[in-house]
Amino acid sequence: MTTHSQAQVFHALHGEGLLILPNVWDAGSARIVEHAGAKAIATSSAAVAWAHGYPDGEAIPPEVLVSTVREIARVASVPVTADAEAGYSRDPETAGDFVARIIDAGAVGINIEDGQDSPDLLCAKIEQVRGAGVRSGVDLWINARVDVYLFNLAEGQAAFDETVRRARLYGGAGADSIFVPGAVDETTIGNLAREVGRPLNVLAWPGLPDAARLKELGVRRLSAGAGLAKASLGHTHALAEAFLRDGNSSPFFEGAFAPVKVNELMRRD
Q1: Bridge partners of 111?
Q2: Which one of 48, 178, 227, 249 is CB 3.0 to 4.6 Å from 167, fit for a cystine?
Q3: Number of domains in the chain
Q4: 33: domain range?
Q5: Residue 21 forms beta bridges with which residues?
Q6: 124 forms bridges with which residues in the sheet?
Q7: Contact (Cβ atoms closer than 8 angstroms) between residue 133 and residue 139
Q8: pLDDT tens-digit profile of 31-80?
């Protein structure tokens, strides 16, 4: 399937109910997640950074991130969307050029975040990113992340109002959907879904309603974020500690995934 076709599929997925994205960190995890039934592959910036021995927060070299996206796109038969963090620059044009490299690597969607910067800065970046997609001939899906709740930039009604204000600015600048990590309670999520003006994306979080309820509330996209990576690395740490302690091999061959032949999953038809 061509990148153009993948982009069309990815757009359509946002109109078919709730798109659930179990975020990945490399080509192998992408194959596993696709085999599990994912309709699209999304990266997590934190997970990709950790997989290469870096902390989250644009510490991983940009070329490593681009290379990771290219390797994921190589093995995936479903659309790929990449977490571009804040575009690896405060300069909008430079951020747009960086996203162009991600598109060239095979992504048909990106996340880009405001963090604690001015909303006007992200608006300018979104405009540049949209231009990069046009120049690449890809109908890029831009998921703009609003970090008001994530970074506790405001509380209560003020947080809601600021999130909606930013979301509308980003939509006007060219964002296709709005990502609001940290929004958890049903009332807030339902109100956001009605007010942000674009499809709403929420993040896996303790206390978050299940998929069926999120769909009822009007959410169109649910991301695991770094959740799978945290759980996988945590389980690896526990297994390693136990193995170092007693050398018991049995845990490696137990559990729901143990019978699956991982090597077979890495082969594409």
Answers
A1: 83, 143
A2: 178
A3: 1
A4: 3-226
A5: 223
A6: none
A7: yes
A8: 999 999 999 999 999 999 999 999 999 999 999 999 999 999 999 999 99
Q: pLDDT per residue over 146-182, tens digit each?
A: 999 999 999 999 999 999 999 999 999 999 999 999 9
What does the angle CA 243 – CA 245 – CA 246 come to, to the nearest 5 degrees?
Answer: 70
Whether residue 265 lies inside any domain: the answer is no
Q: Is residue 246 part of a domain?
A: no
- Rounded CA separation 69/84 (Å): 10
State the Cα angle at 63 between 57 and 68, rounded to 5°.
85
pTM listed for this prediction: 0.95
User: How far is Cα 4 from Cα 201, in angstroms, rounded to an integer?
Assistant: 23
Structure tokens belonging to residue 17: 């109910």
> Residue 88: CA atoms inside 13 Å, Cβ hemisphere, count?
20
**Domain CATH code at residue 121:** 3.20.20.60
Q: Which residues contact 131 (CB under 8 A, 6 or more apart)?
A: 96
